[in-house]
Amino acid sequence: MAHTFSHEQRLDRLAEVAVQIGLCPVPGQEVVMNAPIEALPLVRLITEKAYKAGASLVTTLFHDEASRLLRFQCARNESFDRVAEWLYGGMAKALRNGSAWLLITGDDPLLLAGQDPDKVARFNRTTWQAFMAALRPIFSFEINWTILSYATPAWAQAVFPNDAENVAVGKLWDAIFAASRVDTADPIAAWRAHKDALAAHAKFLNEKRFAAVRFRGPGTDLRVGLADDHQWLGVWLAKNGVSFTPNIPTEELATAPHKDRVEGVVRSTKPLCYQGTLIERISMRFAGGRIVEANAEKGADLLREILETDEGARHLGEVALVPESSPIAKSELLFYNTLYDENAASHVAIGQAYSPCIANGTALSPAELDAKGANHSLLHIDWMIGSPNVDVDGISADGTTTPLMRAGEWV
Amino acid sequence: MAHTFSHEQRLDRLAEVAVQIGLCPVPGQEVVMNAPIEALPLVRLITEKAYKAGASLVTTLFHDEASRLLRFQCARNESFDRVAEWLYGGMAKALRNGSAWLLITGDDPLLLAGQDPDKVARFNRTTWQAFMAALRPIFSFEINWTILSYATPAWAQAVFPNDAENVAVGKLWDAIFAASRVDTADPIAAWRAHKDALAAHAKFLNEKRFAAVRFRGPGTDLRVGLADDHQWLGVWLAKNGVSFTPNIPTEELATAPHKDRVEGVVRSTKPLCYQGTLIERISMRFAGGRIVEANAEKGADLLREILETDEGARHLGEVALVPESSPIAKSELLFYNTLYDENAASHVAIGQAYSPCIANGTALSPAELDAKGANHSLLHIDWMIGSPNVDVDGISADGTTTPLMRAGEWV
Question: Is the pTM of this model over 0.90?
Answer without folding.
Answer: yes
